[in-house]
Amino acid sequence: MSACRSAIPARGWARRPFARAAEPFLTTKGVGTGTGPGLSMIHGFAEPSGGRLRLRSAPGEGTSAEIWLPVAGAGLPLGEVAARPPEPPVLPAMTIQMVDDDPLVPMNGTALLEDLGHAVVEAASGAQALQVLREAAIDLMIADRAMPGMTGARLIEAVRAERPGLPVVLASGFADLPEGRLAGIVRLASLFGQDDLARALAASLDLAARLVANPGGA
């Protein structure tokens, strides 16, 4: 294994935001100050490569980040071509609603979606999301699972009752979802890159079309 290390002395993260450092969309910066690539994307690169991202931080002491990657072995024999993963689907431009109670969380998600050519409308709660959905032309919804009041799963259930054809994605996907109408929901893992996001959008469009064509199952 080989490592690349970066350190910032004399500064550090507080315990609560540091525990969420590798979550997608998380930033501690203010609006308009830029977000960089995000630790979740770095983690998403290191893990599939057989490596890992190691973070250490303490207020007043500093922060260090290490990326550990395996040393590359011999290349392919001459004439052989490595299998490439399929390209992410190219989708038509959509207006996508992102729902999360933390105002900082959607910032990176908005950047990723806009880079894919989509417009983004944000909502801070399930109730607000439903109100916006009734007033605006929303093509797809991405909802965070863990929200106070109305959770992402309950919001999606309400959305399917009002607009059964609306594609939906549940972020921070966990296994503890109610069965029934939510059994076939498209989930987005807690760590993902832009290609993963594009595939989740495509999967939700496909699932919504199948649910409309066959309301009794996906």
TrEMBL record:
Q: Which residues form the Response regulatory domain?
A: 95-205
Q: Which PROSITE patterns match?
A: RESPONSE_REGULATORY
- Classify the source by domain of life: Bacteria
GO MF annotation, one: phosphorelay sensor kinase activity
Which Pfam families does the entry mention?
A: Response_reg (PF00072)
Q: List the keywords (alphabetical).
A: Phosphoprotein
Q: Which residues carry this modification: 4-aspartylphosphate?
A: D144
- Name listed for the protein in its UniProt record: Response regulatory domain-containing protein
